[in-house]
What we know:
The structure holds 2 protein chains of 2 kinds.
Chain A: H1 2-21, H2 29-58, H3 74-85, H4 87-98, H5 102-133, H6 140-171, H7 181-206
Helix pairs in contact in A: 2-6, 2-7, 3-5, 3-7, 4-5, 4-7, 5-6, 6-7
Chain B: H1 6-22, H2 30-36, H3 40-69, H4 79-114, H5 122-144, H6 169-197, H7 210-242, H8 255-289, H9 296-309, H10 325-337, H11 339-355, H12 362-385, H13 387-393, H14 397-427, H15 433-459, H16 476-506, H17 548-556, H18 561-564, E1 570-574, E2 581-586, H19 593-610, H20 613-631, H21 654-660, E3 665-666
Parallel strand pairs in B: 2-3
Antiparallel strand pairs in B: 1-2
Amino acid sequence: MSVTRGSKAAESKRRAAPHRRVPPTGRTPAWWGMVLFVTTEGMLFSCLLASYFYIRFSSRGPWPPGGIENPELTKPLVMTALLVSSSLPMLWADWAVRHGRTGQLKGGLALTLLLGATFLGLQGSEYKEKFEMFSWSENVYGSLFYGITGFHGTHVAVGLVMILFTIVAALRGKFSAKRHERVRLVAFYWHFVDAVWVFILFTIYLSPKL
Amino acid sequence: MSIVDAAGAHRAAEEAAGERVARHWPEGHGLRGWITTVDHKRIGRRYMVTAGVFFTLAGIEALVMRTQLALPEGRVVSPGVYDQLFSLHGTVMIFFFATPMLFGFGNFLLPLMVGTRDMAFPRFNAFGYWVFAAAGLFMFASLLFGVAPNAGWFAYVPLSGERYNPDLNLDVYSLGLLFLGISTTGSGINFIATALKLRAPGMTLSRVPVFVWALVVTSFMVVFALPPLNLANAMLFLDRRFGTKFFVPSGGGDALLWQHLFWLFGHPDVYIIVLPALGIVSAIVPTFSRRPIAAYPVIVLATVATGIISFGVWVHHMFAVGLPQLAMTFFSAASIVITIPAGIQIFSWLGTMLLGRVVLAVPMMWALGFVFVFVLGGVTGVMFAIVPFDQQTTDSYFVVAHFHYVLFGGAVFPIIGGVFYWWPKFTGRRTNVRAGLWSFWLVFAGFNLTFFPMHIAGLLGMPRRVYTFSPGLGWDPWNLLSTVGAYLLAVGLLVTLVTLLHSLRRGAQAPPDPWGGETLEWATSSPPRPHDFAVIPTVYSLHPLWDQLSLDSFGEESRSRLHVLDEGHDVLRTTELDAEPQRSLEMPEDTPIPFVAAFGLLIAFTSLLLGGYFAAIAGAAVFGLALMWWLWPRERPGGSGDGGPAKGGGEGSGEEGGRAGGEREGASA
C-alpha cells in the first residue's frame, strides 16, 4: 500500500519536473507597483496612528478626554473576526485561479465580498451609536476616532469595489491559470487592509485599556 | 564588423531592426496625439516645459518681492499681496518646479539610460503629468482671485488655521498639494518599477548609472515621505472646513503635530530635490573628465545613505520651538552626520576631475559652478545643525540665504547644466557655446550677488518674510545689493532661455552622441525615435558606450528575438538584481483615459474647494469609472494571446521559459 503511494508521489514529481527546469519568471512591474502602493499607504496609516499616540501622550488629563467613555469591545472584536477571516477566502480564490479553477475563484471572491460588506455594515451601526455620544468636531479624540476608522473604512470600501470588479471580470471569463495577476494584486491590497485593521483595533479599542 | 562609437552602435541597430520595430511604435499627431500620448519622451519634455513655466512665474514673484525690498519703506505691493507672493513663490518652487522638473529629466532619461523603450507604466505616467499640470493650474489660478496661499510654504498652524485665515487661501494650499501628491507618488512608483524590471540585460546593480540610482533613491523617499505631508494637509483641510480639532489646542489638538508631520516630509524633500540634481552632476562630470566616475560604489552608497539618514533630521527645523534638550541633541548629531555622504559625493567628483582630462564645455561649467555654491550652502547647513547657532539665526535672512544656496545652487545649477547637456537629446539641436557661457557667468554672478548679501542681512537681524523694513537698521546696502543681483540673475536666466529657444530654430542638427557620453541614451538618435532602441543592447560595464563588448552588442543582438522584440509594442523584462532577461512585456498604446481620469480629479478638487460636495463626488466618480475602464482586462489587438507563438524565448533554454510562461503579458497600468 505504502509502496504504491510512494510510487504515485514519485510519478507526480516526475510530471512536475519539466516545470522546475523553467527559470523562474520573477515579479512583474505590476507586482512592484502594488507593493510600493501598499508601502506608501502603510506609511500613511503609520503616521495617522503615530498622530493618535502623539496627541494622547502629550495631552494631560484622562484619555479619552471630555467625558467620552472608553469604547465598547464586543462589536469591534466581531468586526475584527469578520475582516481578518475574510482573508482566507481571498487566499483560496488566488490559489484557485492559479490552478485554473475559475468556479472556486468566483466563490472565494464572493465570500470575501460578503464578509467585507458585513464589516462595513457593522461599522455603520457602530458609528450610529457613537454619533449619539460624540461627533468628530467635539474634540481631538472625536477627530482621531472618526478620522482613523473612517479612513480605514474608505479603504475597505475601495477594496470591495476592487473585488466586485474582479468578480465581474471573472464572470466574463477574463481569468485563467495563465492569466491571473490581477487577482493576486487585488488580494494583496485586501490583505493589507485587513492587516491595518488589526493595528487600528489595538490603537483605538485596546490601548486605552492598557 | 566592429562598432567604434555610439553613433555607429545606433546605426547598426537601426539598420538591422529599425523598420521592423518602428512599425509597432506609431506616433500620434495633432491634438488627439497630443492628449493621448504615453511616450515617455514626450511626457518628459512636457514635464520640463511646464515646470519651466512655473519656474518663470514664481521667479517673477521673487522679482516683485526684491523690488519691494530694494529700499526701506517700499510700497510696490500691499502686505497681504506680499504674503501671497512669498508663500506661492516657495510652494511653487519646491513642489511645482523642482521635483516635477527633475521628474521630467527622469521620465525622458531613465528608460533611455537603462536601455528600454518606455516607462513601466506608460499610461500612469501620462496621468501623472496631467495631474501635475492640473494641480499647477489650480494653484496659480488662486492668485488671480486673490486667494493664493499666504501662510508661508510650510503653513504653520495656528496661522494657517481657520481662525486666523478664514478665506480660501489655505484650502487652496492643502488641496493643491494633496492633488499634486497623487502625481508625485505615482511617478516615484513608476521610476522604481522601471529601474527594477526594465533594465537592459547585463545591467546588474553595479552597472546602473549614478543618475538612475539617485532617481530610485529619490523615488523611495517619495514613497515614504509624502504620506506625512498628505496626512497633514488632509487634517488641515478637515480642521478648516469641517471643524475637526487635530491642530486646535482648545479642542485638545496639538499645533506642533503639524510641524512634526510637515518636517517629517519636509527635510527628506530637500534631498528629494537635491539627490536627482546631484545625479545630473554625476552624469556630466565623467563625460567631461573623459573617464568613469571615481569611487562608483562609494557614491552610490552615499546616495542611499543620504536617503535613509534624511528621515532622522527633521527636528532641526524646529530647534526654536522648545522641544526637550535630549531630542534636539539627537537631531543635531544626525544633521551633522548627513553632511558626510554629501561630502563623499563632492570628493568623488573632484577625484574624477583630478584623474581625468577636464573639458570645460558649457554643461561642465554649470557643474563646476554647482560644486562651488553647493559647498557654500553646505557650510551654512552644518552651522544650522548646531543648536545654539540655529536658535540665534532661525527665521532670519541667513536661513533664506542658506536654502537658496542649497536649492538654487544644488538643484537649479545642475538642472540648467543638465538641460545644456541633454538638449541635443531632447530636441535634436545643438546650443551656441558662447551664448551658453554668457548665460552661465551671468547667472553665477547674479546668483551670488543676490543671495550672498542675505547672509549678512540675516546676521544683522533681518527676519525673513517681512514685506518692508525701516531705514537705519544697517540692512539697506545689503538689500539693495540683493535686488541688483536679482535683476542680474533674471537677465542671466533670460539669456539662458533665449539661447535655448534660438537653438530650436537655428541650432545645428545634433548627431546621436555630441559629447562622447558613456551611458546608453547617447546610442539613440537625437531626439530618439518613439521606440528608442531598435536593438536592446547587452551591457557589460558601468560605461557601456566606452566598452567594445557593449557597443558590439548593438549589432550582434539584432539576431536575438528577445533583444529586438519586433512582434508588437514590446519591451524586455529582466530580473531585479542581475538584469537576466525574462520575457517580453507588451506595453499599452496611446489612450485618452489618463487625461479623462485627471480631469475628473480636477473637477473633484475644485468642487471640494468651492464647497460643491455633490460635484466633488461626481468628479471622483468620473475618476473611478475611468480607472475601471483603464484596468479592465482585455485582449489587445494584435496580441498573440494564449495560443500564439511563444515570444519570451530567445536562444537556448530561454525558449522554454517563454513558452511555459504562455502568453505575452500586458502591463497593467
